[in-house]
Specification:
mainly alpha, 51% helix
């Protein structure tokens, strides 16, 4: 699996997966939708890319956290837009 992951994703994409995994409000299902990685594969990437102490801290935070698992959320899907995402202006051409 590690060989497959290393071949399929760029360093930038791996960094984005790690960033999404650290975000409390981003569920694993969103990572799977965007990158095709299930929770187990995300855990493998995190374990491989992080320092051991950082990985343990992340796993402790994530386990059982309702916001990281859609099926554990009580109010269904919550939308969240990261401040790093570009603003979408309804496909209108910006005025100069």
């Amino acid at each position: 699996m590690d060989r497959k992951l290393a071949q399929e994703f760029t360093t930038r994409e791996i960094d984005r997966v790690i960033e999404m995994a650290w975000e409390d409000r981003t569920p694993f299902e969103a990572i799977e939708f965007q990158f095709g990685l299930n929770e187990k594969e995300v855990i493998t990437i995190m374990q491989r890319e992080l320092k051991p102490s950082s990985f343990r801290m992340w796993r402790k935070r994530v386990q059982g956290r309702k916001t990281k698992h859609l099926k554990l959320r009580t109010n269904g899907v919550h939308t969240f837009k990261s401040s790093r995402q570009k603003h979408i202006s309804g496909n209108k051409i910006a005025k100069r």
